[in-house]
Amino acid sequence: METNDGVITLEDENGKLIDMNVVEMVEVHDIRYVLLQNADTSDENSYIFRFREDIEFDRLESVDDENELEKIMDIFEEKLSDGGPVH
């Protein structure tokens, strides 16, 4: 994963590089979450990941628990509807 001015480059399961725009980041109970959208505007989906900082590299983890995901989605929706700043 590489980062550059609000863009994260991810590698998919086939080795293809995908640029993702960082829409917003929030911290809940000492866990940071990031909301991403594909830089390719033909994909209008949004993606939520846990963001983990590590000494060697940062990593994104999927949020598999539906209750946790719903809670984080609500926080992002509220933050974005208030016009809060993008972090």
Q: Quick summary of this structure?
A:
The chain has 87 residues and is α+β, with helices and mostly antiparallel strands.
Please specify the SSE layout and strand pairing:
Blueprint: E1 2-4, E2 7-11, E3 17-28, E4 31-38, E5 46-52, E6 59-62, H1 66-81
Antiparallel strand pairs: 1-2, 2-3, 3-4, 4-5, 5-6
Give me the side-by-side strand order of the main sheet. 1-2-3-4-5-6
Q: What's the helical proportion of residues?
A: 10-25%
Count of helical regions? 1
Give the structural class. alpha+beta
Rg is: 13 Å
Summarize the biggest pleated sheet: 6 strands, antiparallel
Poorly predicted segments: none
Number of domains: 1
Shape, please?
A: globular
Instruction: Tell me what portion of residues adopts beta-strand conformation.
Output: 35-45%
Q: Could you tell me the mean pLDDT?
A: 86
In total, how many beta strands? 6
- Write the H/E string, N to C: EEEEEEH
Separation of the first and last Cα atoms? 18 Å
Entry keywords:
single chain; 87 residues; alpha+beta; 1 helix; 18% helix
Describe this protein's structure.
The protein is of the alpha+beta class and 87 residues long. Helices cover 18% and strands 45% of the residues. It is built from one helix and six strands. A six-stranded antiparallel β-sheet has the order 1-2-3-4-5-6, with helices on one face.
